[in-house]
Amino acid sequence: MAEYGSGGFGQPGGSRYLPISEHGLIGDLRTAALVATDGTIDWYCCPRFDAPSVFASILDADRGGSFELSADVPARTRQFYFPDTNVLITRFFAADGVAEIQDFMPVVDESREADRHRLIRRVICVRGVLPFKAKVAPRFGYGAESHTVRLESHEAVFRSPSLTLALTSTAPLESDGLDVWSHFKLLEGESQVFALDRIGDDVPARSCPRAEAQEQAEATVRFWRRWLSRSRYHGRWREMVHRSALLLKLLTYAPTGAIVAAPTTSLPEQIGGERNWDYRYVWVRDAAFCIYAMLRLGFTSEAEAFMGFISEHGIMRGTKESGPLQIMYGIDGRCDLPEYELSHLEGHLGSAPVRVGNAATGQLQLDIYGALIDSVYLYDKWGQPISSGHWDEVGAVVDWLCRHWDQPDEGVWETRAGRRDFVYSRLMCWVALERAIRMANRRGLPADLPRWQQSRDAIYRQIMARGWSDDRGAFVQGLDDTVLDASLLMMPMTKFISPTDPKWLSTLDVLTSDLVSDSLVYRYDPAASPDGLRGSEGTFSICSFWYVEALARAGRLEEARLAFEKMLTYANHVGLFAEEIGRTGEQLGNFPQAFTHLSLISAAFNLDRALG
Questions:
Q1: 3-state secondary structure of 269
Q2: Pairing relationship of beta strands 75-81 and 66-71 according to DSSP bridges
Q3: How far apart are CA 118 and CA 105, in angstroms?
Q4: Rounded to a whole number, what is the distance in angstroms from the first to the last CA of the chain?
């Protein structure tokens, strides 16, 4: 619970930034917005996840733009999701009354209305009386584009060179030619509605009266509950598992079936540091693991849509010299994602640079082949049998991997210090070959099995001989190395090694000693394994959930359950996780992150099954 009102307009407690964790997420399966616990929308890109921002005060409180809506008197706030939905409610508790904001984006199938990207904010006084204030201050093009405002009574039109937005309101509006604001008082039972729409020649402006706002709120609740009802999960921690599933669905781009790694860019992995990246793209690895999580819960249509994305955009038919796959793609399947810096934005809490695009696109990360082929294998097993065309693509990728698995790469953590022989990359190459062999055998599909098996076995022998350190008594980050790496927690999960194999149990003990802090797990030690970047980082939440699963598979159920319960305490107030956890439990990195939530689902599923 937070208390506001002592600072300037929209600046709680005099602070210019709320912590990353003080947000919930809403969206319409095309884009998304972060809503802070003080009622401010401080991140929103329109018309899609990777479009330039309209509101970005989370990255620059002065230049980023925001949509502020809050009580006009000192008030405490609480925020929660309407149960089993992505409708977010922020409540204000003041001396003379209680009110709430219902924030949501209607999910519609009709292409014309889907292009509206309507964002609705309903303010309702539920007890007593409460004055409210609103300020809508868009800053188009990441705050770099100028705009004009045309105000007519209860409608304001913001026009920039690249985008036009219409704000309609049941409350009176005022404007200074740049921003729009409103002041109003609500008595018990009264409400006001604000709706922000993208408009254009194909999408005309439209008002949003109170009755329509209520109808769209009810329709949005029905959509999310109907979607979640398909879940087959009935085990422990069901609420957290379902919140994670709802988040993964929110990060899906419906027009193509793509899944973004996170809806934000440049939220820092270290406050004041340079480890700030744009995650609004489709990482092959992250999306493939998402498919595993979705299939586990029974959401086969999401897996089918992602397989459609892979096929339609020829992801496995690439012809680049570095291999058929890139590590990431745009949500529309594009390959070119040039990285540049927005020097006019100061970054969250001064954490510059703010980046758009991602230079890691050109990296070689061989582990993505295992992640993708494994997701194809699981879809073929739990969803629908893959087509002959898909199998031809799989065969071509595996044939390429037979020729190229034994080479250095940048690795799963996207280091910027040159290529190395990472054991995890070898492990996932083994997964790609092993799963392809399984598919060929189970369905009698044509394959060069002797060659595939020879390569698979060569990888296994190399990892066992050179990926194991007698000095450390553990599997290590690189061949002939002594540095530990939490990615190797995947070894028993991929069925490369038995979870009770003596070598694995020894590795688990050493990882626990060196990389685990309470329940939290560091990826590796940057001092022992330089990654080409300055500064440190927090613990990686996906590794922490991998650790839970590794403990469970090793039969250490009490430790696993305690570690899992501790991890849940690091979730924010609405059950969301960023990429990392800092030294004092703060959320760090892009938020919310798909990778963390899919590993939560997997850990919960396997721990629940192990507990019986």
A1: coil
A2: unpaired
A3: 6
A4: 36
Number of neighbouring beta carbons within 10 Å of residue 231: 18
Categorise residue 516: left if φ over 0, alpha if ψ from -120 to 50, beta otherwise: beta
Residue recorded with tokens 């295992």: 370
The helix or strand, by DSSP H or E, that contains position 103, with its residue range, turns out to be: strand 97-104
Q: What's the rounded Cα separation, in Å, for the pair 49 and 261?
A: 11
What radius of gyration do the chain's Cα atoms show?
Answer: 25
- Report the DSSP pairing between strands 180-187 and 191-198: unpaired
Note whether 46 and 31 are within 8 A (CB): yes
In the block, which residue shows the tokens 């003990």? 509
Phi then psi for residue 458, to 5 deg, are -65, -40
Q: Which residues contact 118 (CB under 8 A, 6 or more apart)?
A: 28, 105, 106, 195, 196, 197, 208, 216
Instruction: Spell out the residues 6+ positions from residue 502 whose beta carbon is closer than 8 angstroms to its own.
Output: none
Tens digits of per-residue pLDDT, 580-605?
999 999 999 999 999 999 999 999 99
Strand partners, 517: 520
CB 507: neighbour CB atoms within 10 A?
Answer: 25
Structure tokens at 350: 């001064």
Q: Please give the Cα distance from 358 to 260 (Å, whole number).
A: 13
Containing 75, the helix (H) or strand (E) segment is strand 75-81
Q: Is the dihedral of CA 81, 70, 55, 36 positive or negative?
A: negative
> What are phi and psi for residue 606, nearest 5 degrees?
-75, -35
At 195 the three-state DSSP class reads strand
Q: What letters, b where the CB count within 10 A reaches 16 and e where it falls short, cover 180-189?
A: bbbebebeee
How many C-beta neighbours within 10 Å does residue 290 have?
Answer: 29
Q: Fill in the amino acid letter for 497.
A: I
Whether the bond into 592 is cis, omega within 30 of 0: yes
Q: pLDDT for 239-271, tens place per residue? A: 999 999 999 999 999 999 999 999 999 999 989
How does the average pLDDT of the chain come out, rounded? 93
3-state secondary structure 15-64: CCCCCCCCEEEEECCCCEEEEECCCCEEEEECCCCCCCEEECCCCCCCCC
CA-to-CA dists, residue 353 to 272, 341, 342, 554, angstroms: 9, 6, 7, 42
Count the residues in the chain.
612
Strand partners, 187: 129
Q: CA of 343: how far to CAs of 79, 187, 234, 338, 353, in Å? A: 33, 45, 48, 16, 7
Is-contact 279 590, C-beta < 8 A? yes
Cβ atoms within 10 A of the Cβ of 373, count?
25
Determine contact, residues 384/374, Cβ cutoff 8 Å. no
Residue 587 φ/ψ, nearest 5 degrees: -80, 135
Contact between residue 185 and residue 130 where contact means Cβ atoms under 8 Å apart: yes
One-letter amino acid at 172 equals P
Q: How confident is the model at residue 538 (pLDDT cuts 50, 70, 90)?
A: confident
Of 447, 395, 401, nearest to 427 by C-alpha is 401
